[in-house]
Amino acid sequence: MKKLISIIGTTGIGKTKLAIQIAQHFSTEIISCDSRQFFKEMKIGTATPSAEELAQVPHHFIGNLSIKDYYSIGQFEKDAIQKLEELFRTRDIVVMVGGSMMYEKAVLEGLHDLPEANEENQTKLQRMLNDEGIGKLQTLLKDLDIDYYNKVDKDNPRRLFRAIDIIWQTGKTYTENIADQVNKRDFEVIRIGIQSPREIIYERINQRVDLMVKNGLVEEVESLIPFKNNLALRTVGYSELFNYFNENWTLDFAIEEIKKNSRRFAKRQLTWYRKEDNINWVNFENLVEESLSLLNTLNIKK
């Protein structure tokens, strides 16, 4: 059976480095399931792999879209599975990497049999977000489906849009809609997670944000001001700096908020992964050697 090696872990912990080394070891290619790195205009704020890193191994689904494009998780699932089928024709192993938990899940298990986004609902929700802020969407979802509200990434408008849209379309809670639906895949999945003490994760996040600023994050966000209401830009690293450019916050405060919100996201990632029981954990200090040793133990060889 063909094998998909999925590299996961918190933001800033070294997933890109590990994915490249494993892909090189097996002479294969990489599929990204980092939903923020799909957009070509957001290279710095999403820590997109550098040109040098991208040149080392063929990557897919990085910088393939514009922030002007609408792209759903359902579309990604279809595109990713199609790309995997293509790659598996000539390879026994493919590597996937990314910290977008639901996007990884979509590839591994498939999405639930849910209707496509309703354009009228999406427009209504976008107007609500623009006029009343994300708090309005959070309250609405809480009223409609308290169970899903308690576990969803409440700061991600895409998640809120999707859940509320489905509830409106089906008349059932999102939790009811997604119960017990898993698609069978014709490839084996090996998940490798990078683990580290929380203080190391937070320290790396702080350092990464400082490096982003040094590399031109503020200028990148300034160039995107005309599109600040686009869904893709309602995300950490961009929302905070839009507040700076709106003169609501100082630059120093906005940068500290980026660090704080990135740490919050890492905490949500940790919570998500703790609930999973099929992750092979490796230590961040020795991640390549431990990963290759693990794969060898599982009899996954070149």
TrEMBL record:
Keyword Magnesium: yes
Reactions catalysed: adenosine(37) in tRNA + dimethylallyl diphosphate = N(6)-dimethylallyladenosine(37) in tRNA + diphosphate
UniProt: ATP binding residues: 9-16
EC number: 2.5.1.75
Cofactor requirements of the protein: Mg(2+)
Binding-site residues, substrate: 11-16
Family designation: Belongs to the IPP transferase family.
NCBIfam families recorded: miaA
Protein name: tRNA dimethylallyltransferase
Organism name: Kaistella carnis
